[in-house]
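Hey team,

Filing this mostly as a record. A colleague (T.K.) asked me to run one chain through the structure pipeline before their review meeting, and I want the input and output archived in the tracker in case anyone asks later how it was produced. No errors, nothing strange. Just documentation.

Input sequence:
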Amino acid sequence: MQSELNTIVVNALEDLKGKEIVELDVTTLSDVMDTLVIATGTSNRHVKSLANNVVEDGKEKGFRPIGVEGMETGEWVLVDYGDLVVHVMLDTTRTFYELEKLWSTEPATRHKSKPDA
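Output structure:
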């Protein structure tokens, strides 16, 4: 079911010419989600259209997002499906926040061994 949603999301982004679409498996880094999909839009309107297409294509296949944020400004729209979170951003916003870099490394404290008692 998860891979079906991933495919729907990526196809929805590709259908409207989303740029630099990246899927990140974050199962080892996060307890709240499994996959991040990040895409870039060329304008605020394009970002909104990409996110809206993700939501509409998902609804057609029976997937309803838990939440959608950022549609008002269109600089960064987040579509939250729980296990899968979609970020559609302007290029400048994506470059500034570097989500791929943020989610590519595991926190140093995550697997730190506990001190001996």
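Quick notes for T.K.: The longest helix spans residues 44-60. Residues 32 and 83 are 7 Å apart (CA to CA).
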